[in-house]
Amino acid sequence: MIRLRRVLFLLTSVLVLTACQPPGVVVDEPQPKAEAETLRVGTLYGAQIYMSSGQGLSGFDYELAQKFADYLGKPLEMQPYSNRSELYDALAKGEIDLIAAGITESPNRRNRFRMGPPLYRVDQVVVYRQGNRAPESIEQLSGNLMVVADSAFVETLTRLQQTHTNLSWEQTSEKDNDELIAMIASGELNYTLAQSTSLDINRRYMPELRSGLVLEEKVPVVWLLPAQNSDALMSKLLAFWHQEKRAGTLAHLNEKYFGHVKRFDYVDTRAFIRAIDAKLPRYRPLFEEYAGDLDWRKLAAASYQESHWNPNARSPTGVRGMMMLTNATASQLGVTNRLDPRQSIRGGADYLRDLINRLPESIPENQRMWFALAAYNIGLGHLEDARRLAEAQGLNPSAWRDVKQVLPLLQKRKFYSQTRYGYARGGEAVHYVDSIRRYYDTLVWVDNQKPKDEPLLPDEIQVEETAASSAAEPPTAAPRE
Q1: What integer is the mean pLDDT of 127-152?
Q2: Measured at the alpha carbon of residue 135, what is the angle toward residues 428 and 158, in degrees to the nearest 5?
Q3: What is the residue range of 377's domain?
Q4: pTM for the structure as a whole
Q5: Distance (Å, rounded) from C-alpha 324 to C-alpha 23?
Q6: Which residue has the higher pLDDT, 243 or 11?
Q7: 174, 152 in Cβ contact below 8 A?
Q8: pLDDT, tens digit, for every residue of 262-272?
Q9: Number of domains in the chain
Q10: Cα dist. 161→104, 141, 190 in Å?
Q11: How far is CA 122 from CA 59, 129, 198, 274, in A?
């Protein structure tokens, strides 16, 4: 009898304890992991997302992630991944806290992740090359289209396939979207899909790109959070988003990275010659004064490539002035007003000389300027990566003609994943240097065709500087560049 009572007591105790737990919950569930000491953000390389250039890190997602980390009072740990699949796996494994990579909202992603608030909106557009047939219907894309695997474009095409049964495409996990866009420009590929902002940015470097059919309009770009155990982080993200939206930060970043892109245009030789007559006489004395042991015409050509000799110029990434300096670089060079032509030209000349002096001695004197200009554009670290790649391929790492062949490889995952500094727009650096060399040749030609213009008098130069000073940069109380 006593034994029976003990058994009944034990059974009752088990039933009571079990009834106290919600269905499916294990009694001995482990405690959640301690909150990370840093904000761990997964991302992808891209000009509007995250990249390293000659003057530091940039990108819409990078800047906003840095502000969010500051809001949380944590250091930012930004980790780029090679593709979306690796990015999603890292989030699922808890290796990162969120994804900030210019990714758009989509039905599949809503099922897999928690979506942050909209940061900006984009169209999904068909990209083709100038001179090729513009696609007039969905059917014309069939068999001639390649997109990135795991992208929202695959979802869009799958949905369209329900009403356009003959639609077919190829998807790749070996290339990113910028690589596919470059294949369009080179004629290797007929069609791909891209976000409208990405196309606008890439057209600055590949003007033969054209926009075709719009498959989706005004799709929100969002950050992704884990589907489970992310309530606290989502609450903080929403509060941060409301704060920065009211402060104008989102609008500022949108304008900084996307607002001026469509206005960018490559200037042909005739336009450059007109600028030599209309603009250069005002600034030539400053180029000659601060060039020092450099050829002033190379300095002037670099300035034209940077700003079109506009002292108030501003790029989508926030660099400013005649020599397009960032705030950080200007501060290091003692430039207090980037809009002052004298300060900007002096700072740019000093920066170029420093880059030339830091190059390996093996680079010949007559090529050091081209290497330095490439470093001015993408940074010495990326340039050294390209030199190592050139050497590995049996090319001369101290010859510009060889290094310019491998610089575009820094945009290809197969190569940049093996380098120290990672992804860089090496193709842009090649175009940058080639353009400056072309402008320089034109300046030399013009210089040999007619007598030198009489230099401006000191008081005339002072008028220019006074005008620039009156347009001095405002205090950076709002979002910084």
Answers
A1: 89
A2: 90
A3: 269-470
A4: 0.64
A5: 62
A6: 243
A7: no
A8: 544 544 566 78
A9: 2
A10: 20, 12, 19
A11: 16, 21, 9, 37
